Every structure is written in C-alpha cells, then in structure tokens.
Amino acid sequence: MDTILFFHTSRRQAWQKEQDGAFRFARARGWRIQVVEPTRSKPHVRELVDLWNPIGCIVECSGERSDYFNPDDFACIPTVFLGRDPRTLPRWASFINPSSTGPGEKAAMELLKAGITSFAFVATEGNHFWSRDREAEFRRILRLHGMSCAVFGRKEAFRTERSRTKACSEFLLSLPKPCGVMAENDYAAAYVLDIAGRLKIPIPSKLSVIGVDNDPHLCENARPALSSIHLDFEQAGYRACEILSILIGDPSAGPIRETYDALGLMRRGSTPIGSGTSPRVTKMLAYIREHACEGISANDVAKQIPGTHRLAEMDFLRATGHTIMDELNNVRFEHVEMLLRSPSQRLGAIANICGWRTENALRAAFLKRYGMSMRAWREKQAAP
C-alpha cells in the first residue's frame, strides 16, 4: 500500500476536519496516510522520507511560523502545502489555502446590516498570513462604507498572558459602543467574549463578536454562543489529496495553486438578532437561533416568554411579518444551504443535523421551498 506523509502543525478543530477529508480520499484511492505530529524543534523531513519512502507529502502549516518547514526538504517528492503563506514558497510548490476574500467580507456585511458604525479586529501574536488577509478584507469592506477599524494584537508585543489580557481589556473598554468585532479565528473570538464577560460589557448590545472556523466546541460553549464563519476544511483536505494525486500521476505537471471559500456565517448569540424588536420577540429570536436545529417546535419557542402561545405568535408576527414556524424554517434552511455548499457533506446526514425528523421530510420541504432537489441545488451552486 502506497504511503503518504501528512505533516501538520495546527491543533485546532480545523486540522481534524482537514484530516477527515484526506482520509476520505485515501480510503477510496487505497493510500495509507501516516500523520507526523508537530514537535518543538523543526522536523527531520528527509530522515522521515527515507524511513517511510512515501509517494507524496501533504504539509499543513497554519499553526506555526512559515520557517517551521523548509520547502527545499520536499523538493524531491510530490508535495502539497496546506495553509502556507504563498510568499514563502518557491515557484515549484503546489498549495491549497483559505481564500483571501470571504471571511472578512461576510463579517463586515453582517455587522453593517445590523446598523453598527464602530468596528475592531482582534488578532493573536502569531501574525499568520491568513489572519492578515482577513483583517485586510474586513477593513476594505468597511472603507467602502466610509468606516474605520481599530486593530488589536497585530503590532503589540506582550511578555506575559496577564499583560496581554490587561491590554486587550483596555482596548475593548476604549471602543465606541456599540461596536462590531471580527476576531481572526474562534480562539481569538472566545478570548474577546471571556474578557468582555469579566468587564461586564453586554453582548451583543454593546459588543458584537464574530469568529472564523465555526469550531462547535468553542462556539457553542462560549457565553453567549459565538457566531462564526464556516470554512470547508474537510473539503480542503480532500482537495489537497486530489492535487497530490495529479502531481504523483504526472511528474512533469506544473504547480497547482488553489484556494477554498467560506461557506457562510453560522449565527449565534454573539451578534445582533432583531434590531428594534421588543425584548419578548428578541428572546424568541435568540432561542430560535440557538436551538432551531435541535428539532424544537413553535410551541417550545413560545414557552420562552410569559403568556399564551397565541399571544407569543401575535407578538412575533407583528414584529417580523411571519410566524414562529416560518422563522424556525428560515434558520434551518440557512444551515441546510451552508452544508450543501460543501461537496464533502453527505445529503443523507443533513436532515438530522438541521432539525428535521426524517430525511424524506427535509427532501419534501426543500423541494417545496426551492422547486428542485437538494442534489440539483448543490449542482447549480457548483456550476461555473
């Protein structure tokens, strides 16, 4: 069985998804993937290649500085870099990276639509290229609308975590409120929410926060739950193997360089819900956003506020122009669309993920809403 060495540096949920995609391709191709875990010192790439005699390598780089891997060590073997700054790669190198556009634009538009006029971007000490790309796109969209953006964590240097937390606390307190914050990823966003909680800054009325990666563990356990932009990491891992397969099959092939997009924004409690709505309706909207995909009913939503179901429906209809059940379906279909945009997502699993009791129930509801099957909708979205 042919062996592929899969080097990685990240320990985030994104890496697990990338690994899932790579293993899915490997099973179909009959490859054996040997994962090489990150170490404190630079890996001995050439010794590992001699030891395993692989037919190719995938090198995931998003968790360390660019100099952790020396590209020249991979020059003698087909290799695909995953999440590596292209400016640090030689001309012969192939890669697949997150798109420089997408997350920043989606975050900016979400916050602008909420009527927010003060903005900030929060980075970590890593100064990764994908973080700089997200900041640049976020700021570009804001400039188009005549808005500016404060930035934390890009140029500052902190000796201790305590000094960093103190500086971030002062930064958040100094921002004009209400303020919309985009963080470079979910870890940075959860960090912001934690500090805001200690400072008793109301979320999302005074500070709205959006992360990137849509890591369920981080997002759903944050307080409040974190809105996050979903990147298709599993498809990135799968596509990295596809590119590697092309390079292995044709040694004379030139470098293949691609990017993958953001699938959408998973809205949760850290971003505004219904601007100008009453506290009763806002509470119902928040509950729907948090629990719509858990199979809840309109009656479950109505129970979140005092009074009868009929009164809750009347308040909701007056504020939104549609029923509680309509809103439940809107949120569920929003999630369905995001999953359908991922080629790696099995159609049969979507119903359970998004709150339908059976696959047939979702298929019938989807056909009625969109006038086509889920498969046809996916193919239409994928068409050039």
Description:
The protein has 384 residues and is an alpha/beta fold. The protein is built from 15 helices and 12 strands. It has helices at residues 13-29, 45-52, 103-113, 129-144, 161-174, 186-199, 216-221, 233-249, 279-291, 298-302, 309-320, 324-340, 347-354, 359-370, 374-382, and strands at residues 3-7, 32-36, 56-60, 79-82, 94-98, 119-122, 150-152, 179-183, 207-212, 227-231, 257-260, 262-266. The strands form 2 sheets. A 6-stranded parallel β-sheet has the order 2-1-3-4-5-11, covered by helices on one side. The protein has a 6-stranded mixed β-sheet with strand order 7-6-8-9-10-12, sandwiched between helices. Strand 6, helix 4 (129-144) and strand 7 form a beta-alpha-beta unit. The longest helix is centred in the first third of the chain and has 17 residues, at 13-29. The two termini are 36 Å apart. 40% of the residues are buried.
